Amino acid sequence: MIANLLLLLTAAVWGFGFVAQSMGMDHLSPFMFNGLRFLIGAVSLLPLLWFFANKKTLLVGNKKSLILASISAGSVLFFAASLQQVGLQFTSAANAGFITGLYIVIVPVLGLILKHQTGANTWLGCAIAVFGLYFLSIKDDMSIGYGDLLQLVGAVFWAVHILIIDHFAKKHSPILLSHLQFIFCGLLSIGVSMMIETTVIGNIGLAWAALAYSGIVSVGVGYTLQVVAQKNAHPAHVAIILSLETVFAAIGGILILGETLEPRALLGCSLMLTGILVSQIPLRYFVKSWGQTKRTQIQSD
């Protein structure tokens, strides 16, 4: 129960992170905001790195492999985060949260390329989620909003990022890999910002709250809570609870940013969340639960 509560807190932290990212762009351009928040996030992981290094539990592995992993993960993270941040200029935090959450469905689908096994629940969940996406983002003329489209493409990059981390995390410490990819992504974002954006130094101070939350809380605190909680939680529970970040993104957008969701959008969000949850729960659990319910009814009769 404690582990599940910590995971729920993590989902809330990440969900409200969409609100912070949206507010941060009141003062900073997308690439500069991303660059600063990822560098802040990298710094926030230093105490955790020191702790594991001091306990001699920090797996480094081959240095060349570590550099390759950091550059690969950092590059994909840059594209995923950039699409998400730019997309937030043209869509709501609620939409961004739910559409980004589709990476949970996309991961096993992309896993087919790597010959990963994919259960029937994934295909069912994917179908429900796509149906929900139609109600959330597709307009009457069958077009999709620019911001929602960027979030959808970004969700594919988030899925690819997870697969990269999954591959390299077996060879290196996930925390060390996260730290290095954050640095690479942050520097790359600032480099792009210096080429195409104009940043007023004073605006960085105005965006301090959004930067602090996005960097320290979303990355530092959120990542730490996830690591601690996953030690005592079932993997299926982890995926399901963390997927609730999409719900918290919607709640934050409504309460803090004053966003509204029309009935059609609410239906789409509900279907997308259902699809995400179904994709994470093997169908045998539904069959098992139904069988237990029937046995209980028979015994009662």
From TrEMBL:
Principal subcellular localisation of the protein: membrane
Annotated ranges, domain EamA: 2-137, 146-278
Cellular localisation: Cell membrane
Signal peptide: none
Keywords, ordered alphabetically: Cell membrane, Membrane, Transmembrane, Transmembrane helix
Residues spanning the membrane: 36-53, 65-87, 93-114, 121-138, 144-164, 176-196, 202-225, 237-258, 264-287
Protein's UniProt keywords contain Transmembrane: yes
Membrane topology: Multi-pass membrane protein
Superkingdom of the source species: Bacteria
Keyword Metal-binding appears in the UniProt entry: no
Protein name: DMT family transporter
